Amino acid sequence: MDNGTPLDFTGRVVLVTGGTKGIGAAIAEAFLGAGADVVVCGRNAPKTLPAARGREAVLVPADVRDPVAAAGLVDSAVERFGRLDVLVNNAGGSPDADAATASPRLVEKVVALNLLAPFYVAQAAHRAMRTRPGGGSVVNIGSVSAHDPQPGTAAYTAAKAGLLALTKALALEWAPQVRVNHITTGLIRTESAAAGYGTDGGASVAGVIPMERMAHPWDVARACLFLASDLAGYITGADLAVHGGGEVPARYLAARAAGGQG
After folding, report:
1. Mean of per-residue pLDDT scores for the chain
2. Do residues 71 and 120 lie in contact, with contact meaning Cβ atoms separated by under 8 Å?
3. What is the arithmetic mean of pLDDT over 105-118?
4. What is the set of active-site residues?
5. What is the mean pLDDT of residues 216-233?
6. In three state form, how does the secondary structure of 146-162 look?
7. Which pLDDT score is estimated for 190?
């Protein structure tokens, strides 16, 4: 798919964690379409790898929750292509769990995937980028949950809030060589999330979003292209909201449903 932008990443190397499916695959395809060499990672090999314009991403299997594996992932990208220009920390997610009964093991796994893993990969990426002419760019994929928690997401919310704070801290420490930015994602239509949007194809969910639709993974991918590009060369420590305006306040929805009363 054409990424629809004039951005050119020819000669640049991009690493996308969790880049084998869903949002990560769309991000990988966007950078491939813009001319970059792309490395993706995942714990399991997919049936097909992200591809665009006749070019395919390179898969490096890795569990980024392991700091040694995270460092090895970055090393593999640099060994193969000789450099690393962009890291997109996309790997994340969590099943819903009641905060009162969530097991310590589940909490640890959720925090490790959504907060510790991005830190580990970013540290390794920084070592590869900091001495390069032009430095590099890190984009962390966060969630609206960091700002507006939902029931069943306590550990995930805490981890994503931590990721947002981590972004700002790293941006402060690593400028000007390495820029670090954050994308707050909202409701996104992916295959893995479809079951949670109801039997109406997500129409009811779309009705609470000002843009009147859920995001497509490509909406996030295009935001990554911008933040990683020279167009954003003076942007670091930023939180870019890609959520269609958030959600319409419940009070307004209730009043509308009651015919404008209340």
Report:
1. 90
2. yes
3. 97
4. 156
5. 95
6. HCCCCCCCHHHHHHHHH
7. 64
Rounded to an integer, the average pLDDT of 143-171 is 95
Of 145 and 196, the structure prediction assigns the larger pLDDT to 145
- Read off the pLDDT of residues 42-53 as tens digits, 9 standing for 90 and up: 888 888 999 999
Residue 86 contacts residue 13 (beta carbons within 8 Å): yes
DSSP codes joined into one string, the chain: ----S----TT-EEEEETTTSHHHHHHHHHHHHTT-EEEEE-SS--SS--EETTEEPEE----TTSHHHHHHHHHHHHHHHS---EEEE---------TTT--HHHHHHHHIIIIIHHHHHHHHHHHHHTTSTT-EEEEEEEEGGGTS--TT-HHHHHHHHHHHHHHHHHHHHHTTTEEEEEEEE--B--TTTGGGGTTTTTHHHHTTSTTSSPBPHHHHHHHHHHHHSGGGTT--S-EEEESTT----HHHHHHHHTTS--
CB 45 within 8 A of CB 259: no
Q: What are phi and psi of 27, to 5 degrees?
A: -65, -45
Show Cβ contacts of residue 5 under 8 Å, excluding neighbours closer than 6 positions. 34, 222, 225, 226
